[in-house]
């Protein structure tokens, strides 16, 4: 299992680049950014790392499709791919209605169909192909001609229709707020054997796991009200975000993280929380496999 770290972008570009460098020194496999409404652009943050700083993989988990035309995102991603020396993994997702519609005024309907059409344009553009497409949501007749290999492509997919899109048009999925049993019973069977399953996990090494989960619930609990996350929690027999948190002493955390690998996760993105987040990464060091 490959181990990556989530990059806190609140400190801005300089802090992110320092964190990328630290992840490289620690020997982690990857460092991942995320798109937060009203905040920094995740791809631009990664581009600033340059070709040599940090781990062997730099990824977005995820950047949003809705606000950006697929040709524009392809050009942006290929530019970043060149800037970081071919280490980019482009994780994309449709976002949530409260941001896409309520804040940006864009449609948020037929999400799986929109995402499929978006990827039918994006993927070949990333591979240097000429795309001529006239669909329900986009009309495109263009090509992007820049040198270099395409980035790896992942989709944030939790429901059956989105997982089908991920399996057909990307290299795998990015999932969050899930437990190992849902990976084993729902995600892994829905995807090709070769697909990556990248799971973001809030993790705390602590002597008081109940307090840690309560703190995470106060910060992130509202995510359970978002339809996509509510559906995946219910599918896993859960009701609260806190129930997905891995918390406890070093042995407990190691065992819980290992369960994700046994369930079929290929990659973990550790959102190391608590007073001593470095202890999470210390535990994870022993779990890495090539």
What's the SSE blueprint?
Elements: E1 2-6, H1 13-26, E2 30-33, H2 42-47, E3 57-64, H3 70-83, E4 88-93, H4 97-100, H5 111-126, E5 131-134, E6 139-142, E7 152-156, H6 160-169, E8 172-176, H7 180-190, E9 196-205, H8 209-220, H9 227-235, E10 246-248, H10 250-263, E11 267-272, H11 277-285
Helix pairs in contact: 3-5, 5-6, 7-10, 10-11
Protein name: TIGR03564 family F420-dependent LLM class oxidoreductase
Organism: Pseudonocardia kongjuensis
Keywords: Oxidoreductase
Walk me through the structure.
This protein is an alpha/beta fold and 290 residues long. The chain has a single domain, classed as Luciferase-like domain (TIM Barrel), CATH 3.20.20. Helix content is 41%, strand content 21%. The protein has 11 helices and 11 strands. It has an 8-stranded parallel β-barrel with strand order 1-2-3-4-7-8-9-11, surrounded by 7 helices. It has a two-stranded antiparallel ribbon with strand order 5-6. Helix 3 (70-83) packs across helix 5, helix 7 packs parallel to helix 10 and helix 10 (250-263) crosses helix 11. The termini are close together.
Instruction: Return the domain count.
Output: 1
Cα radius of gyration in angstroms: 18 Å
**How are helices and strands ordered from N to C?**
EHEHEHEHHEEEHEHEHHEHEH
CATH class (first level) name: Alpha Beta
CATH architecture: Alpha-Beta Barrel
Largest sheet: 8 strands, parallel, barrel
The CATH homologous superfamily name equals Luciferase-like domain
Shape: globular
Query: Based on DSSP secondary structure assignment, what is the total number of beta strands?
Result: 11
State the separation between the terminal residues, measured CA to CA: 7 Å
Helix content: 40-55%
């Amino acid at each position: 299992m490959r181990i990556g770290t989530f990059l806190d972008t609140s400190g801005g570009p300089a802090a992110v680049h320092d964190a990328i460098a630290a992840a490289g020194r620690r020997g982690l496999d990857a460092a991942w950014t995320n798109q937060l409404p009203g905040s920094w652009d995740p791809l631009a943050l990664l581009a600033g790392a340059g070709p040599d700083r940090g781990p062997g993989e730099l990824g977005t988990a995820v950047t949003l499709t809705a606000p950006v035309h697929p040709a524009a995102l392809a050009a942006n991603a290929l530019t970043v791919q060149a800037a970081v020396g071919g280490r980019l993994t482009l994780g994309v997702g449709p976002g949530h209605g409260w941001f896409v519609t309520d804040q940006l005024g864009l449609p948020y309907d037929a999400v799986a169909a929109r995402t499929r059409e978006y990827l039918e344009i994006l993927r070949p553009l990333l591979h240097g192909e000429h795309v001529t497409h006239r669909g329900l949501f986009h009309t495109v007749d263009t090509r992007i001609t820049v040198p270099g290999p395409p980035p790896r492509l992942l989709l944030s997919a939790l429901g059956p229709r989105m997982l089908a899109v991920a399996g057909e048009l990307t290299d795998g999925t990015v999932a969050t707020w899930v437990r190992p049993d849902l990976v084993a019973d729902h995600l892994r069977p829905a995807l090709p054997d070769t697909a990556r399953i990248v799971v973001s996990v809030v993790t705390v090494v602590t002597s008081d796991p109940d307090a840690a989960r309560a703190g995470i619930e106060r910060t992130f609990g509202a995510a359970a009200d978002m339809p996509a996350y509510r559906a995946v929690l219910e599918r896993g027999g859960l009701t609260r975000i806190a129930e997905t948190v891995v918390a406890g002493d070093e042995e407990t955390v190691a065992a819980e993280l290992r369960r994700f690998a046994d369930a079929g996760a290929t990659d973990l993105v550790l959102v190391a929380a608590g007073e001593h987040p470095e202890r999470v990464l210390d535990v994870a060091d022993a779990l890495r496999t090539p």
